[in-house]
């Protein structure tokens, strides 16, 4: 049963179809979006290969395709394309359909500082756990980049991420063993905090934040360069926001 593949495709199909919505016309951003996704995916796949090789996590062959690259199932590599696309589609849907739904800069600053203090404290006391330490060290860098260079992005992204967590808990819950006899992805609990939200390691929330924020951040930077975005789309979005 190729459950992992079905979860990837099932997560992607609705956002992909609605990308052709004539009002939002998200396909106009595809060049910058997919470049951002592929760059971020490259980093996370390298991380994935290293952690898989060292037994920090692994994959149940009963649930994925029998093809691997560098020890990773093809389904796992597709995860880094399908899930980010589906997730950031939510972020950009909010941007288009609810342009005024933003946190204040003060709220973004306070939230970021609180998260930085909390994550840094957890990291300090858990440097011996590879998933916790690497994930949270990257999360601190991510939050600092957001704090100094991406406050405008965080005004919407913090809200979008809370919405993204709804499908995240469903998909990642299944991957980690909810509703099925065995997990699709297993974790070595000696390398994480051992705290599960249902069946999901708590570190996975930070992992998702890292991955998705960097896709949005890079996409916004590419759009600022105006190398991919058509003039027609730029005018349409500007007129809508007015």
Question: What can be said about this structure in brief?
Answer:
This protein has 242 residues and is mainly alpha-helical. 67% of the residues lie in helices and 6% in strands.
Question: What labels describe this entry?
Answer:
6% strand; two-stranded antiparallel ribbon; 242 residues; 6 strands; mainly alpha; 8 helices; globular
Kindly describe this structure.
The structure is a single chain. By secondary structure, this protein is mainly α. It has one domain (3-241). Helices cover 67% and strands 6% of the residues. The protein is built from eight helices and six strands; from the N terminus they run H-H-E-E-E-H-H-H-H-E-E-E-H-H. It has helices at 3-18, 30-53, 74-97, 105-124, 130-149, 151-175, 203-225, 231-241, and strands at residues 57-59, 68-69, 72-73, 185-187, 196-197, 200-201. A two-stranded antiparallel sheet has the order 1-4. It has a two-stranded antiparallel sheet with strand order 2-3. It has a two-stranded antiparallel ribbon with strand order 5-6. Helix 2 (30-53) runs antiparallel to helix 3, helix 3 (74-97) crosses helix 7 and helix 5 (130-149) packs parallel to helix 7 (203-225). The radius of gyration is 18 Å and the shape is globular. It starts with a helix and ends with a helix. The mean pLDDT is 93.
Overall pLDDT score: 93
The largest sheet is:
2 strands, antiparallel
Shape: globular
Number of helices: 8
| Rg over C-alpha atoms, rounded to the nearest angstrom | 18 Å
Q: Estimate the strand proportion.
A: 5-15%
Distance, first to last CA: 49 Å
SSE order in H/E notation? HHEEEHHHHEEEHH
